[in-house]
Amino acid sequence: MEGSLPRHLCHVQKSSAIINRFHALIHSTALIALIYYRASFLLQNNDTRSGHTPIIPWLLVFAGELVLSFIWLLDQAFRWRPVTRAVFPERLPEDKQLPSIDMFICTVDPKKEPTLEVMNTVISAMALDYPPEKLHVYVSDDGGSSLTLYGMKEAWEFARSWVPFCRTHGIKTPCPKAYFSSLEDGDGSEFLGTEFMAERRRVQIEYEKFKATLRTASKEGGIRNESMSSPTDHPAGVEVIGADQVEMPLLVYVSREKRPSHPHHFKAGALNVLLRVSGIISNSPYILILDCDMYCNDPTSAQKAMCFHLDPKISPTLAFVQFPQRFHNISKNDIYDSGLRSTFSILWEGFDGLQGPVLAGTCFYIKRVAFYGSFIQDDIDILKLRESFGPSNEFIRSLGQNHKPSVGFLYQSVLEDYLTAFTMHCRGWTSVYCNPSKPQFLGSGVTNMNDMLVQGTRWSSGLFDVAISKFSPLIYGPLRMSILESFCYAYLAYFPLYFISVWCFGIIPQLCLLNGIPLYPKVSDSFFMIFAFIFVSSLSKHLYEVLFTGGSFQTWMNEQRNWMIKSVTCHLYGSMDAIMKKIGMREASFLTTNKVVDNEEEKLYQMGKFDFRTSTAILAPVIILVISNMAAFMVGLARVIAAGNWDKMFVQVVLSFYILIMSYPIVEGMILRKDKGRVPPSITLLSTVLAMVLLTLGSTALMY
User: Fold this and answer.
1) Is the pLDDT assigned to residue 184 strictly greater than 50?
2) E strand or H helix at 289, and its extent?
3) Rounded to whole angstroms, how far apart are CA atoms 518 and 120?
4) Whether 116 contacts 133, CB under 8 Å
5) Which residues fall within 8 angstroms of residue 296, CB to CB, at 6 or more apart?
6) Contact criterion met (CB below 8 Å) for 271 and 140
7) Distance CA 448, CA 601 (A)
8) Among 408, 448, 617, 702, which residue carries the largest CB count within 10 Å?
9) Residue 95 annotated as binding?
10) First to last CA, the chain
11) Torsion angles phi and psi, residue 515, rounded to 5
12) Is 675 a catalytic residue?
């Protein structure tokens, strides 16, 4: 009877789907009316048009509206059929019948990714509630650091106490740092006897010694290893740790060879090396991939994933189970939108109602065979396999008889997860999104503006790489997957184009406001209601989604503000970077997000104050836009009051005012704040000069 019960259930959010579809219908009708209004102006003859708006600003604003409408249309695919899922791990077969799992953890630089934090992730993975002999943890040290190898050996020694302690007492938090630092930890509460407390104290003392050992080694630069000369130039190294321990997961250190003259393809290259090494050592049918700071917060994540992977109805085509990224250091205010609320509470649930979500780079259990090709039987050329995988007979045999030479993560984008998942879905694979109430994994979110914008630029560049490649979702996808699934992928690939809309809306109407040139219908014009409806409809729908997913009005404000900031900077620079790589003007690069906690930055973040300590190139565009809007609003408002032409200029006044309201923390950082995190006066001065030049040149151009 138990075997016949379902191990998971899928629930379609019907009420949300109905609301989303109704809103999409009404909003798209309004957009059609807007496009008609703009197009009718362009079709007027020159004599009729001469008494109105110059054609160039009109075209630029229209272009911004078209781009925004295009991205909005793609975005609606996520909202067509959102679903949620429930799992029942207690219905899984016995431990001896469960498949083995390889776990991949990637790290690069101990200076940006502290070894102690990485080892906590490693230890938490080893302590999953799963048969220990079926777990194999592989750590990719892409920097070839002797400190990482030393840390793994010390982590193994501590894990010999920690893993049995977790299994014996049913500890619910497998990460030792999180467990011991929790002030109200209920783990093992049913065992709060003298024996349990004594063992807990013993393990905690061992953990303190482990921490002290790693901190000392970090200060001293680790254990010297002459063979590993530098993070970008070192030989390969593989070391199996604790292979003789039957009741413990296998731990393997892997450092691939890197030479400056040879492209190494960043994280994708490191993961593909782990695929090859693990294929020879353990060759587990399933793989968990984690970022080095994303520790296991619930020991049952593997069981939850197996509820899907072991379902005979969906397993033949199921490539991976994606869990959401959650973060332990997110403040209630979350001024940088580091919690990625929209991504994992709206987009991925919508993705899941179609063919399944995209890979999120971490926190997913993937079927090994999905990396090796399609599930369709093909003739295999052994020579081609050797060209792709190398001369290892053991590894070639591990591929079986059903795989193509195109293996592993793809290299055409620095966002290897997005492109790899896209091609998997194009080959017919599916995926699911599992979002339990307790976060299965917890990582470190960004807590300063510099990291937020650097990370955002990397994401924008990687996504736009795909948009302008042969894998463009709107060209490559529709014939290989459902149209709605391809729209979802297209939204992610093309959303960096938001920079066109935000720059057009943030500069052009303001220039025209300064010069008394209307770009929108009069308040008395019937088309005014179309523009007003679209503006209110967009904002209110976003607010509804924020409140529906547990956010607040402040959350909505933060997300609106960050959308503007990222569009002006990350999306602009990311798109430019992708285009320059496409035409061969620069090579791909990958900047690791800093995981080191800065107490001063953390304090500002918890206080809800932006930390503006970043490069001039990143910050200046935002300040220029804000100063331009301040000048346009003050001068334009005075001009409107004097001329009494509110009817013509109302929309432009409101638009500029709205931008300033959303930009208040930036204005505060320029004018009111005196702390170290304020906008540097030099950047404020430079941006003011550039904004005045921009407004002067723009106003001069409008006169001709």
Assistant:
1) no
2) strand 286-291
3) 59
4) no
5) 121, 124, 125, 127, 128, 174, 175, 290, 440, 441
6) yes
7) 6
8) 448
9) no
10) 82
11) -105, 10
12) no
Question: Between the CA of residue 240 and those of 118, 144, 237, 249, 287, what are the distances in Å?
Answer: 18, 16, 10, 11, 18
Write a three-state SS string for 667-678. HHHHHCCCCCCC
Between 233 and 174, residue with greater pLDDT: 174
660, with CB counted inside 10 A (0-12, 13-18, 19+), is middle
User: Is 611 annotated in some ligand binding site?
Assistant: no
Check whether 142 is labelled as a binding-site residue. yes
Q: Is 102 annotated as a binding residue?
A: no
Task: Point out the least confidently predicted range of 205-209, 324-328, 507-511, 600-604.
Answer: 600-604
Instruction: Compute how many other C-beta atoms are within 10 angstroms of the C-beta atom of residue 391.
Output: 8
Which residues contact residue 455 at a Cβ distance below 8 angstroms, ignoring those fewer than 6 apart? Answer: 446, 593
Please list, in sequence order, all residues whose beta carbon lies within 8 angstroms of the beta carbon of residue 573, skipping any fewer than 6 positions away.
457, 460, 461, 617, 618
Marked catalytic residue, from 75, 129, 141, 142: 142
All structural domains of the chain, each given as residue ranges with its CATH number in brackets, are 98-184+194-459 (3.90.550.10)
Convert the pLDDT of each residue in 252-269 to its tens digit.
999 988 888 787 788 888
Q: Which amino acid is at 51?
A: G
Contact 620, 690 (CB under 8 A): yes
Structure tokens at 522: 């009069």
The b-or-e profile of 420-434 (16+ CB within 10 A means b, else e) is bbbbbbbbebbbbbb
- Whether residue 417 lies in the annotated active site: yes
Q: Is the dihedral of CA 149, 151, 157, 162 positive or negative?
A: negative
Catalytic residue among 75, 129, 334, 417: 417
The whole-model pTM stands at: 0.90
Longest dimension (CA), the chain: 93
- The bridge status of strand 135-141 relative to strand 250-255 is parallel
SS (H, E, C) 128-170: CCCCHHHEEEEEEECCCCHHHHHHHHHHHHHHHHHHHHHHHHC
Cα gap 338→328, rounded to integer Å: 11
How far apart CA 467 and CA 446 sit, in angstroms, is: 26
Tens-place pLDDT, residues 51-103: 556 889 999 999 999 999 999 999 999 999 999 999 999 999 998 999 999 99
Measure the CA–CA gap between 306 and 176, rounded to whole angstroms. 25
* pLDDT above 70: residue 224: no
User: Which residue shows structure tokens 């939108």?
Assistant: 337
Q: Is 545 annotated as a binding residue?
A: no
Quote the CA–CA distance of 180 and 305 in Å, as a whole number. Answer: 27
